[in-house]
Amino acid sequence: MKRQRYLRAFWCVLLGLSFLTGCATKEPLPNFYLLTGPGPRPVRTQSSGGTVVLVRRVEVPAYLAKTTLVTMRGGIEVQYAATERWAEPLDQGLARAVAEDLTRNPRIKAYGFSPGASSVDHSYDVWIRIERFEGNDEGKVELRAHWSVSSTGSSTPIAGRTVDLHRSGWQPGDYPGLVRLLSDEVGEMSRQIARAIP
After folding, report:
1. Sign of CA dihedral 73, 85, 60, 147
2. What is the pLDDT of residue 44?
């Protein structure tokens, strides 16, 4: 008799647990994105010629210094995507993407900031300060930044510019589309920087 009660209780607990497990909501898995330029990534070799450039650590505002993709609503409300993430810290991802874009230019060999990486012998430094880097609820994607180029060891820029790039036609919620448009804007800024490198 006692054994039947334990057995019945065991089956009730087991049935209850399987009911709860079946009803539990499953959180969607995160998606991870990289900023990339068109075509395959350029390959750098030690023997490659060209002006050697180092893209320094990119300054990003605090609201962007997260792994979550950002959109703006009404021009003032910051919205962080629930499951859409950068695959690397944004300051490093931007430095890497700009360096890759610069290296697509045959006369430039560029390296991006990476913590812990050994120092590379280079002729020019590229400095970038990001102000805006997001999509908004009107379907626009914006990159606002200031960049400058200086000779290695010099604090005086030889060139610099503020860029305010906009792409429209983005569908809010289309995060792969957002990353593609942001990558296009980074590519356009990189081409401006490449033209300024002697």
Report:
1. negative
2. 54
For the ranges 19-28, 46-55, 100-109, the one whose mean pLDDT is highest: 100-109
Residue of 181, 175, 114, 169 lying closest to 139 (CA atoms): 169
**189 in Cβ contact with 147 (< 8 Å):** yes
What is the chain's percent helix, strand, coil content, to nearest 5? 30, 35, 35
Tens digit of each residue's pLDDT (9 = 90 or more) over 107-163: 999 999 988 888 899 999 999 999 999 999 999 999 999 999 999 989 899 999 999
Give the Cα separation of 17 and 14 in Å (integer).
Answer: 5
Q: What is the CATH number of domain 29-196?
A: 3.40.50.10610
For residue 86, give the nearest of 146, 31, 18, 12 by alpha carbon. 31
- The two structure tokens encoding residue 186: 């980074």
Of 106, 5, 130, 137, the closest CA to residue 56 belongs to 130
Residue 92 pLDDT more than 90? Answer: yes
Give the pTM: 0.82
CA separation for the pair 6, 115 (Å, rounded): 60
The region that residue 95 occupies, defined by phi over 0 for left and psi between -120 and 50 for alpha, beta otherwise, is alpha
The 3-state DSSP class for residue 181 equals helix
Q: Which two tokens stand for residue 132?
A: 């805006």
Domain positions in the chain are 29-196
